[in-house]
Amino acid sequence: MFREVNLLSRFKRKGLAVLCADIDFFKSVNDRFTHKGGDEVLKAVASSMKRVIRRTDLIGRIGGEEFAFVLVDVDKKGAIETAEKIRLAVESLDPKIKGLSRVTISIGGAWTCSYTNSDLLGLADQALYQAKGRGRNQVFFN
């Protein structure tokens, strides 16, 4: 309860952003390097993303290779900058799997400064599909 109240009080100051991130072509990683290799990539990606975000931000895995972030007390510009830092951190990752040279992610985001926009996760998910549709390995915001 305390954490929830604390998040809401910070949300009132600047705004709130939700990001959805998806590892590009992850199925091919599992197919080529087995699920054990895929798990190693997931761990490395999650670790690199966690190092980029602030302690006050939240990250969670929401599907096979999809992650969601909640960025509190952030304006839209700051949210976009954070998303780009996350993308670059993953792109610069050394996956340490022989034959896999690079891992990239696509990120969609949505930002609001009002309580009326309650479907930020849905908007961020739509933006993720825009990022993937525009060529992957990029950030797109609604």
What's the layout of helices and strands?
Layout: H1 2-11, E1 16-23, H2 26-52, E2 58-61, E3 66-72, H3 76-91, E4 105-112, H4 120-133, E5 139-141
Parallel strand pairs: 4-5
Antiparallel strand pairs: 1-3, 1-4, 2-3
Helix pairs in contact: 2-3
Plain-language structure description:
With 142 residues, the chain is an alpha+beta fold. The chain has a single domain, classed as Reverse transcriptase/Diguanylate cyclase domain (Alpha-Beta Plaits, 2-Layer Sandwich). Helices cover 47% and strands 21% of the residues. It is built from four helices and five strands, in the order αβαββαβαβ. It has helices at residues 2-11, 26-52, 76-91, 120-133; strands at 16-23, 58-61, 66-72, 105-112, 139-141. Strands 2-3-1-4-5 form a five-stranded mixed β-sheet. Helix 2 (26-52) crosses helix 3 (76-91). The model is unreliable at 1-5 (pLDDT under 50).
Describe this protein with a few key phrases.
single chain, 142 residues, alpha+beta, Alpha-Beta Plaits, 5-stranded mixed β-sheet, 4 helices, 5 strands, 21% strand
Low-confidence stretches: 1-5
Q: Strand order within the widest sheet?
A: 2-3-1-4-5
Fraction in helix: 40-55%
Q: State which percent range the strand residues make up.
A: 15-25%
Largest sheet composition = 5 strands, mixed
What's the order of the H and E elements? Answer: HEHEEHEHE
From the 3D structure, determine the CATH topology: Alpha-Beta Plaits
Q: Assign the structural class, choosing from mainly alpha, mainly beta, alpha/beta, alpha+beta, or little secondary structure.
A: alpha+beta
Q: What CATH architecture do you see?
A: 2-Layer Sandwich
- How many strands in all? 5
Q: Can you tell me the CATH superfamily?
A: Reverse transcriptase/Diguanylate cyclase domain
Radius of gyration: 15 Å
- Helix tally? 4
Q: Give the overall shape, derived from the CA principal axes.
A: globular
Count of domain modules: 1
